[in-house]
Design brief:
Strand content: 35-45%
Radius of gyration: 18 Å
Structural class: alpha+beta
Helix content: 10-25%
Length: about 220
């Protein structure tokens, strides 16, 4: 489990094919003291397991599913990545609960400056946008952000100078792909409501109509 508060950046140092998957070696720009083999590290928001540790360099195995579902399937040697080690129970939860399970890929469609912020528009498929609400949370390349505006095809987020300077978000250009993880709460609520409404534990097809009446009927409000 993660918070979406990026600890620092890493650089892809090596990529080695491993069957249908890959093995990445990543060099971190911060001290990895306290990290052990088997620990989880989010790389651009994808939860991966450290299998080798050598100073500030660590190695992870990336499954075919992760390569297919995320931008890690397109990444190249030398590219920067966001890094966050797993949340400890004693830590402050400064962002939001992030599982490190990437739902899909978004495309940066617009980038503009507004006062001290960078406002970016990211297009996403409706399968992802259905779980987004204004002022809700989303993880973009593992970075916890607040949704300013959303519709069925895209959403907007504001990037403050601190976030732009410490994460890869500040480096992204129009046309770049990013990992998207939607807020897990919405997915669980939908699953629960659909199962309850069907009455036999089998989820109905998406689009079954979650509205205020349905939420009230199911005890959420």
């Amino acid at each position: 489990m993660f918070t979406g508060i990026i600890e620092g950046l890493g650089t892809i140092a090596a990529i080695h094919p491993s069957g249908q998957g890959s093995r990445f070696s990543i060099t971190s720009d911060f001290d990895l003291t306290g990290t052990r083999i088997g620990d989880s590290i989010a790389v651009n928001g994808a939860c991966l397991t450290a299998v080798v540790l050598q100073g500030r360099r660590f190695t992870v195995d990336v499954s075919p599913e992760t390569l297919k579902r995320s931008v890690l399937g397109q990444i190249k040697i030398g590219e920067p990545v966001n890094l966050e080690r797993a949340l400890r129970l004693s830590d402050r939860l400064d962002g939001h609960l992030v599982a490190g399970h990437v739902d899909g890929i978004g495309i940066l469609r617009e980038r503009k400056t507004l006062a001290n912020a960078i406002v970016i528009t990211i297009s996403v498929p409706e399968a992802l946008s259905r779980y987004m609400i204004e002022k809700g949370s989303v993880a973009v390349d593992g970075t916890s952000l607040t949704i300013n505006r959303c519709d069925s095809a895209s959403f907007d987020v504001s990037i403050i100078p601190h976030t732009a300077g410490l994460t890869t978000i500040g480096l992204k250009k129009v046309g770049d792909a990013v990992n998207i993880e939607t807020d897990m709460i919405g997915k669980f609520v939908e699953r629960f409501v659909l199962n309850r409404d069907s009455g036999h534990g089998k989820a109905e097809e998406p689009g079954g109509g979650i509205d205020m009446a349905m939420l009230a009927k199911s005890g959420f409000i």
